[in-house]
Write a structure and sequence with these properties.
- This protein has 209 residues and is of the alpha/beta class.
- It has one domain: 3-Layer(aba) Sandwich (Rossmann fold), CATH 3.40.50.360.
- It contains eight helices and six strands; from the N terminus they run βαβαααβααβαββα.
- Helix 1 packs across helix 8.
- It is globular, with a radius of gyration of 17 Å.
Length: 209
């Protein structure tokens, strides 16, 4: 069974909704899925100063475990999800990626499939820039980056060729069916590519015997 790890950070639920749709797509391809939420890195006093932040974080942390190094080693594919922070990755998710240095040094992430999705608060708020900014650390980790292209009809209605996206309009809108369909396709595509990579490695091992 293909193993897919989805690591995301979400403040108000938009990125969480995309993560759940990605997970559903991967499961439809027969994959085993682990959904993990990156934890806050801001000081408690900062979190307390923003209405609803602590409550939302607590509720999501009850639903999702924190990601670990062991999760990344377990996975055949890793999908990262983040809200946009000034056109780039959220520090909470980046902190997790930075924690994978030990696995990187051992080469244990080489050849795993990797993909990304994100959400923004404002229109033209940096969705594509954020997705592309995550491609760089993924390449350093040795992941085989899986973009979406326009390989599914859902892509002609929403999303980007780089990964699923959503614009929340200052957290007044949740991802609609069209955007969730793109995220679901992303999960299917990543699981399919990861399975193909596993099969290829198996065939190479058999040929070498």
């Amino acid at each position: 069974m293909t193993k897919v790890l989805i690591v995301f950070y979400s403040r108000n639920g938009s990125t969480e909704a995309l993560a759940n749709a990605v997970a559903e797509g991967a499961r439809r391809q027969g994959a085993e899925v682990r959904l993990r939420r990156a934890r806050e890195v801001a000081p408690p006093e900062v979190i307390a100063s923003v209405p609803g932040w602590a409550e939302a974080a607590g509720a999501m942390n009850d639903r999702f475990e924190a990601p670990t190094e062991a999760d990344a080693e377990w996975a055949d594919a890793i999908v990262f999800g983040t809200p946009t922070r000034f056109g780039s990755i959220a520090s909470e998710l980046k902190a997790y990626i930075d924690s994978l240095g030990g696995l990187w040094f051992q080469g244990k992430l080489n050849g795993k499939a990797g993909s990304v999705f994100c959400s923004t608060s404002s229109k033209h708020g940096g969705n594509e820039a954020t997705l592309l900014s995550i491609y760089a650390p993924m390449a350093h980790l040795g992941l085989i980056i899986v973009p979406l292209g326009y390989a599914d009809p859902a892509m002609f209605k929403a999303g980007t060729p780089y990964g699923a996206t959503h614009v929340s309009a200052l957290d007044t809108l949740k991802p609609d069916e069209e955007h969730l369909a793109v995220a679901e396709f992303q999960g299917r595509r990543v699981a399919e590519v990861a399975r193909a990579l596993i099969e290829n490695r198996s065939q190479q091992a058999e040929a070498a015997e």
